[in-house]
Design a protein that fits this description.
Belongs to the ABC transporter superfamily. InterPro entries: AAA+_ATPase (IPR003593), ABC_ATPase_HisP-typ (IPR030679), ABC_transporter-like_ATP-bd (IPR003439), ABC_transporter-like_CS (IPR017871), MetN_ABC_transporter-like (IPR050086), P-loop_NTPase (IPR027417). It is globular and about 50 Å long. The protein is α/β, with parallel strands linked by helices. It contains nine helices and twelve strands. The chain binds adenosine-5'-diphosphate and magnesium ion. Adenosine-5'-diphosphate (ADP) binds next to strand 2 and helix 1.
């Protein structure tokens, strides 16, 4: 088996006295779409945020393409922090898209996508805007490059946010409920962009209640409940009947229209 894009080993995360993630072991295969599903509060966002190093795990390790992120940990559990510059380079392999698009309201779509290229990556304005435009073309928003977020629909804003993440050339893309704040008629355009990205072979980890997307595009599904992974497998294994009672209960709550036909 090839090296996983992300390997999570025995990960724990606590906030004060509350254990939010426990004993998480998960391998994200290269070039595949892995979907994380589970009830609200089960720890999905926290796990994704740990993978992106927006949150520091309490113990355990996360390896990105073979390089340890954040902290190494020896057999005795003694941790050592990875030097910041090295850690930033490892972290840079990851792009993330959130439920809230977090676009800068005073910048156009092109400005939003090119800003970090200019300020963080010190690209010339011309090069940054060229690369940004190529990403806007990719998400179907070439004609909206000069529009401000307030002039764009929620679906278009989320596509700009995806373009912004892609412009930084990540090797892995994490999506945390990318369609949850959109009106139902706007989710399709965002899911289609994600589907295209999957077809190109991008390694993706997607947290979503769009079970239809998980069942058709996901190659691996992990079901999280109360901070633990209850099981992981291909969609046909995970969704086959009879189902684990917790999964059945979850599907009753979140099953989207049409998805029942796929399961
Ligand atoms: N910064 C934080 N401080 C304290 N508790 C948190 C924090 N972030 C998340 N939690 C708690 O961790 C649990 C898991 O949250 P989260 O990862 O957001 O779940 P999900 O994304 O599955 O809904 C919840 O009980 C939540 O209240
Ligand atoms: Mg969440």
């Amino acid at each position: 088996m090839s090296l996983p894009a992300i390997a999570v080993k025995n990960l724990f995360k606590t906030f004060g006295d509350t254990t939010v993630l426990q004993n998480i072991d998960l391998a994200i295969p290269q070039g595949q779409v892995s979907c994380l599903i589970g009830p609200s509060g089960s720890g999905k966002s926290t796990l994704l945020r740990c993978m992106a190093f927006l949150e520091e795990a309490t113990s355990g390790t996360i390896t990105i393409n073979g390089e340890v992120l954040g902290f190494t940990e020896n057999a005795q559990g003694v941790r050592e922090r990875i030097p910041p510059a090295a850690n930033r380079a490892i972290r840079a392999q990851i792009g993330m898209v959130f439920q809230q698009f977090n676009l800068w309201p005073h910048m156009t779509a092109l400005g939003n996508v090119s800003e970090a290229l200019k300020t963080v990556h010190k690209m010339s304005r011309k090069d940054a805007e060229e690369r940004a435009m190529a990403q806007l073309v990719k998400v179907g928003l070439e004609a909206r490059a000069g529009h401000y977020p307030s002039q764009l629909s929620g679906g278009q804003q989320q596509r700009v946010a995806i373009a912004r993440a892609l412009a930084l050339k990540p090797k892995i893309m994490l999506f945390d409920e990318p369609t949850s704040s959109l009106d139902p008629e706007l989710t399709g355009e965002v899911l289609n962009v994600m589907r295209d990205l999957a077809k190109e072979g991008m390694t993706m980890v997607v947290v979503s209640h769009e079970i239809g997307f998980a069942a058709t595009v996901g190659q691996q599904i992990a079901f999280l409940d109360h901070g633990k992974i209850l099981f992981t497998g291909a969609p046909q294994e995970v969704f086959k009947k009879p189902r684990h009672p917790r999964l059945e209960q979850f599907l009753d709550t979140y099953l989207d229209r049409g998805a029942s036909m796929l399961l």
